[in-house]
Amino acid sequence: MLTYLKVFLVGGALCALGEVLILKTKLTPARILVVYITAGAALSALGLYGPLARFAFAGATVPLTGFGHALAQGAISAVQETGLLGAFTGGLAATAGGIAAAVFFGFLAALLFRPRPKDF
Amino acid sequence: MQQSGKKQALIREYAQLVRRLTPKSQLGLGCLRAFWVGGAICLLGQWIAEAAQRWLSLPLSAAQTAASITLVFLTALLTGIGVFDRIARYAGAGTVVPITGFANAMVSPAMEFKPEGWVLGTGARLFTIAGPVLVYGIASSVIVGILYYFIRW
Amino acid sequence: MRTGRSTLVFEHRPRILSSAAVTGPKEGRGPLGRDFDLVLDDPAFGEKSFEQAERKMFQTACEICLKKAKKPAEKVQALLGGDLENQIMAASLSARALEIPFLGLYGACSTMAESLILGSILTDGGFADPVLCAAGSHYATAERQYRFPLEYGNQRTPAAQWTVTGAGACLLSQTGRGLARAVSACVGRVVDLGISDVNNMGAAMAPAAADTLLRFFADTGTAPRDYDRVISGDLGGVGSHLLKEMMRKEGQPLTDEMYLDCGLCIFDGRDDVHAGASGCGCSAAVLSALILPKLRSGKWKRVLFMATGALLSPTSAQQGETIPGVAHVICLEGE
After folding, report:
1. Comparing C-alpha atoms, which of C104, C154, C276, C141 is closest to residue C206?
2. Nearest by CB: C193 against B11, B24, B107
């Protein structure tokens, strides 16, 4: 139960911080995503995001900072295994599932649905 | 543009007027909504990951990937049936920051640009909003990898 | 004929013979819903894309307008109009179907006033008669061009405005009985006071509106109280507040009784439209549904119709350029 509370609080806090950034800095949501993923990769490389992910589980991995964390950790462990080549293969390999899913389901949605005229 | 001092003073004065007369977004309310919806999405991700660990006996990292893929699928479905943007209008960063925001940023242009064709419409525009996320995400991971190769902290 | 530094006076006072407005369902649910000639049930207007729908709406508004004046399209000597799409395709494709000599205009949301002024010049000078003036916009095409896909989840800021799905048209002629007559006009200067927030168009356009009004009043020796209404195009809640503030400072105050913004006429409070309506179709539809009927009935005798435009493109905004505004004013009187 405590785990769920931690997931909810950390995940919610990361989102609330994003809302503050959107409203206070006039950053567009697309820029917020870029900031989050880059910040996640940087914090991960500095060894700061790993502990957060172990503390809050999905609360830290589901937000886009977690995506950056997965990219950075993927690159690091691939470098450990295959050397410099791993810097190029590790990040994408670790996050391939989410990216491929977004591409595939995006295409599928385009196949099945059309933007709905609503509210206007 | 060359601007005289008088024009610059006018611009400053107008900026003040605009600040005074433009209504502000409600920061507290926005944060509260982003907090609970974003937290709930993370909780959902946690349950999916735990279920994948228990019933599919996947290791932690694979279970997390399964959770990501499931959330992406749910976002695509909700975007397709025209519900996601309503939730996002309420939740703001609550849906943008989790992986749902990334997925919606791919799915919505894929649908939107269908009239321009499968290749140059859906195919090319799929990445119009989420492309930068991949560019900066992948580039940072490569930089982290290269730095790690040379420094090995 | 010119008067003062920048005001045109139309010697023969061209008549607006007829007008028409076609709008989307959301606009139809608003306070002016019953006054539009056609309200669509389907924002796609039965077409495959929203661009096609916008074209059909533009063309339909022109056709209804011609039908009301009992003029066939082949008699019309010029079509002046534009919309918000890249390369004003809705207007161009309508002109292709109508086969009327076409001058395409781009003035962003100021297009309706721009076309009325140019149409009045052509008619007054005896160069073309009758002349069809039109403008239109569509929420869905404007969103995907300037902002995001329809299904993209984002929050709208309180100052954001809602692009009207609608088109309006007017037929100008020297002869016949008109709804109203064009008396004088002032072409706006492009004014930019450094606003770069694309979600606050009202603030970007208000300085241009004040500039045009002040020049017009100076040239004609008139003041706001000489008109039954001073009507702006789509300044919205924020922009009209700013305009009133600037006009008060300049000693030409616009009181609430004499001032009206088309952007605040189309939707009511329930619609989640934040600061109000915008788009070429906003002022065009309100002109046809509200302003011309009031002039015709004699309820209003003399009004200023001023459409305002924010002349930005997605490229200019992304390159960090501030938003230039423009406002054109035309004085309309009852017969």
Report:
1. C276
2. B11
Q: Do B134 and A99 touch (CB under 8 A)?
A: yes
pLDDT single digits (tens) B18-62: 999 999 888 999 999 999 999 999 999 999 999 999 999 999 999
Partner residue facing B65 (CB), from A14, A57, A98 = A98
Give me C160's structure tokens.
């954001």
Say if CB B148 and CB C171 are below 8 A apart: no
- In contact, A59 and A85? CB cutoff 8 Å: no
What's the predicted TM-score (pTM) here? 0.94
Q: Does B34 touch chain A (CB under 8 A)?
A: yes
Could you identify the residue written with the tokens 């525009």?
A: B125
For residue A29, the chain C residues in CB contact (below 8 A) are 154
ipTM of the complex: 0.93
Q: Give domain C2-173's CATH number out of 3.40.47.40, 3.40.50.10490, 3.10.20.30, 3.30.70.2750.
A: 3.40.47.40
Quickly name the fold that domain C180-333 has.
Answer: Peroxisomal Thiolase; Chain A, domain 1 (3.40.47)
Sign of torsion, CA C1 C3 C6 C12?
Answer: negative
A49 has a chain B CB within 8 A of its CB: no
Do C149 and B112 count as a contact with CB atoms less than 8 A apart? yes
Contacts of residue B110, Cβ cutoff 8 Å, sequence gap at least 6 = A106, A107, A109, A110, B122, B125, B126
Subunits with 3+ C-beta pairs closer than 8 A to C: A, B
